[in-house]
Amino acid sequence: MANKVAGFFKEVQGELARVSWPTRDELFGSAMIVITLTFLLAAFVGVVDFILSMTIRYLVR
């Protein structure tokens, strides 16, 4: 059992060594894209929610 666990961790270490890790600049750029798109989507959902709320209030009067 201990040999299997040790073998597993050796394989994990080997796979992690083969991973193509992003550079600091690539990571920063990707994070900025995700943050920007999150804010844009939140703004879009907020505007749609406001419009639908006003429409429903108008119809219920």
Features:
89% helix, mainly alpha, 61 residues, elongated
General description of the model:
The chain has a domain at 22-61. 89% of the residues lie in helices and 0% in strands. It is built from two helices and no strands. The protein has helices at 2-18, 24-60. The mean pLDDT is 96.
In brief, what are we looking at here?
The chain has 61 residues and is mostly helical.
The count of β-strands is 0
Order of helices and strands: HH
Portion in strands: under 5%
Helicity, as a percent range: over 70%
Q: Helix count, per DSSP?
A: 2
Rg (CA only):
24 Å
Q: Unreliable stretches, pLDDT < 50, 5 or more residues?
A: none
Integer average pLDDT: 96
Distance between the termini: 71 Å
What spatial form do the alpha-carbon principal axes imply? elongated
* Coarse structural class: mainly alpha
Which helices and strands appear, and what pairs or packs with what?
Elements: H1 2-18, H2 24-60
